[in-house]
Amino acid sequence: LKSRVLNPLANNRPQVGTLEVVDKPKRIMPGWRPPGVVFPIVWLLLIAPLRAATSCMVYQSVGSYASAPILALGLHLSIGDVWNTINNVEQRYGMAATGVVAVWLSKAFASYQYYLVNPLAGKLLALSLIWLSIASALVFGTWRLNPDPTTGKPEPLYPVRGKADTKFKWLWFKKK
Questions:
Q1: Which of these, 98, 94, 64, 66, lies nearest to 79 by C-alpha position?
Q2: What's the mean pLDDT in 56-71?
Q3: Whole-angstrom Cα distance, residue 76 to residue 65?
Q4: 119-158 burial, b for 16+ CB within 10 Å, e for fewer?
């Protein structure tokens, strides 16, 4: 089950080749960034199987999906979906830099919760922190390279009113 199915935000994914969302200005990326095609490969072939395998290990240990470790992973997925909207859809690079720290910390917390129940599951889930660390460096580099066009200064690392128009995909959240 994809976590974004339950996400009320209009969460368009970036184009694989460019990491850009259609109809958005092109962002400047650090020169060391991996090619765009690497991201879906890592998520589909490494991160998703790690989540599934470790969650099965935790389920076998506790006998319930409604357990602290699995709920901690759900929290991480929710934070990640909100971060994706901020970074890729709204392109608020300052807030995205702050948000990626929350993504990293929530994954570390989920890994620790998994570790408490099943040490191997926790260690395996924590492997994805390596990729999240690379992604975090990329997000901070992108923030640094894309100053606010009106001020020429880096965007603030906190939410700023009027910088983006958050769009919702669920009918009852849509603006009229």
A1: 98
A2: 95
A3: 15
A4: eebbebbbebeebbeebbebbbbbbeebeeeeeeeebebe
